[in-house]
Amino acid sequence: MANSASGMAVNDECKRKFLELKSKRSYRFIVFKIEEKIQQVVIDKLGDTNDSYDDLIASLPANECRYAVYDFDFTTDENCQKSKIFFISCSKDRFRRELDGVQVELQATDPSEMSFDIVKGRAY
Fold first, then answer.
1. Domain named ADF-H: which ranges (predicted)?
2. Structure-derived torsion over alpha carbons of residues 53, 107, 66, 43, reported in degrees to the nearest 10
3. Distance between alpha carbon 21 and the CA centroid of its chain, in Å?
4. Does residue 118 lie in a domain region?
């Protein structure tokens, strides 16, 4: 288990599933939560490869902190297919650094700060 500077451990399954998202594209997104009882970051939900950004948003509870990684596919103005992995959080900590390969970080304090248009704009 990886330990963050804040003393919060990151469950090894978090990193394993992230590597599957990154290398095998096994998931569209992963939602993580802090399990207070065991003081660990754990997986809350795995998004199927055919899930949308709206599915990610719908899986985030309104009043609880969550972290997520999202595999965003898009087409550039030059008509090239691209993909970027976003890390979305409500607070910054070492957990983000444990996920080597995240290309864009997006911090949101409410759903309006992580609209699809914002994600698309940050991908370019």
1. 7-124
2. 70
3. 10
4. yes
For residue 112, pLDDT over 60 is answered with yes
- The 3-state DSSP class for residue 3 equals strand
Q: Is residue 4 part of a domain?
A: no
From residue 81, give the alpha-carbon distance in Å to each of 29, 55, 68, 77, 84: 19, 22, 23, 10, 11
pTM of the model as a whole: 0.75
Cα distance between residue 19 and residue 14, in whole Å: 9
Number of domains in the chain: 1
- CATH classification of the domain holding 96: 3.40.20.10
C-beta atoms surrounding 18 within 10 Å: 22
Structural domain boundaries enclosing 48: 9-123
Residue at 1 is within a domain = no
